[in-house]
UniProtKB/TrEMBL annotation:
Top-level taxon: Bacteria
A GO cellular component annotation in the UniProt record: cytosol
Matches recorded under HAMAP family: Trp_synth_alpha
InterPro entries per record: Aldolase_TIM, RibuloseP-bd_barrel, Trp_synthase_suA
Keywords, sorted A to Z: Amino-acid biosynthesis, Aromatic amino acid biosynthesis, Lyase, Tryptophan biosynthesis
Enzyme class: lyase
Reactions listed under catalytic activity: (1S,2R)-1-C-(indol-3-yl)glycerol 3-phosphate + L-serine = D-glyceraldehyde 3-phosphate + L-tryptophan + H2O
Catalytic residue positions: 49 (proton acceptor), 60 (proton acceptor)
Enzyme Commission identifier(s): 4.2.1.20
Protein name from the UniProt record: Tryptophan synthase alpha chain
Subunit-structure text: Tetramer of two alpha and two beta chains.
Molecular-function GO terms, alphabetical: tryptophan synthase activity
């Protein structure tokens, strides 16, 4: 059983909703990213989505684009991502980590090398925003033997034919995009999302996580009530972006500074548990 599947099964057995924060690898620097990951676990994260910085993140809003720019300015690339993972795994071999990003840097490196290095670094899942499920077989042939889950996005505009293929090929969980547009926008129609998630649930036994637009306790509770868990990205990356360049160098070793930037995750964890457990 993969680490992701085991983690979600344990949460479901306890009646807990999964909480999945997203941060950008290398934002603001490598050491701080590792420390942030440990802090997020302490705050109650079940799974961490670690963004692979890319210069043209077309599905991301301004906040995450700025996070990627900060990381890239500091020289972050796939080598940085793997280094962060190895450092994190030195102290934590339990928390699942999903790498999220875009195909271009991976294709430059090559699927074989990317998957091999991901497995060696302790990566549990991949979520590649611009990988069509119809073109995923060559990647899946490499990830499946290594028990690396490949997670696909399902959006409000996803066709029934594509949903069927996604349900067939995905593992770990499904990422339901709560709204049309980019990350960081606000959720406007909870009823429509509930209908779509319910329809999706009738087609798959995979856990369904909802992301995009979750920025506070209220939106997290609303989305968790119709799903198996929630993903929090832009609101967290925005807080990390408040670190000045001088702060960034200190933050990795300053537990108070880190806890301040991740306080939203601790607050959402508490709110979810009070509501659902």
């Amino acid at each position: 059983m993969s680490r992701i599947k085991s983690c979600i099964a344990a949460a479901q057995a306890a009646g807990r909703k999964a909480l999945i924060p997203y941060i950008v690898a290398g934002d603001p620097d490598t050491g701080t990213t590792v420390s942030l990951m440990h802090q997020l676990v302490q705050d109650g994260a079940d799974i961490i989505e670690l963004g692979m910085p890319f210069s043209d993140p077309s599905s991301d809003g301004a906040v995450i684009q700025l996070g990627a720019e900060r990381a890239l300015r500091n020289g972050a690339g796939l080598d940085t991502v793997f280094s962060i993972m190895k450092q994190f795994r030195q102290q934590d071999d339990r928390t699942p980590v999903v790498l999220m990003g875009y195909l271009n840097p991976i294709e430059t490196l090559g699927y074989d090398s990317f998957v091999a290095q991901s497995a060696d670094a302790g990566v549990d899942g991949l979520l590649l925003v611009d990988l069509p499920v119809s073109e995923a077989e060559s990647l899946l042939a490499l990830t499946r033997p290594r028990e690396i889950d490949v997670i696909f996005l399902v959006a409000p505009t996803t066709t029934d034919k594509r949903i069927a293929a996604i349900c067939d090929q995905s593992s770990g969980y499904l990422y339901y995009v709560s709204l049309k547009g980019v990350t960081g926008a606000a959720i406007s129609d909870t009823g429509e999302i509930e209908q779509r998630v319910s329809a999706l649930r009738s087609r798959t036994d995979l856990p369904i996580m909802v992301g995009f637009g979750i920025k506070d306790n209220a939106s997290a509770i609303a989305m968790a009530s119709i799903s198996d868990g929630v993903i929090v990205g832009s609101a967290l990356v925005q807080k990390i972006g408040e670190l000045s360049e001088s702060d960034a160098g200190k933050a990795g070793g300053d537990a108070g500074m880190l806890a301040d930037k991740t306080a939203l995750i601790a607050s959402i964890r508490k709110a979810l548990d009070e509501k659902f457990v």
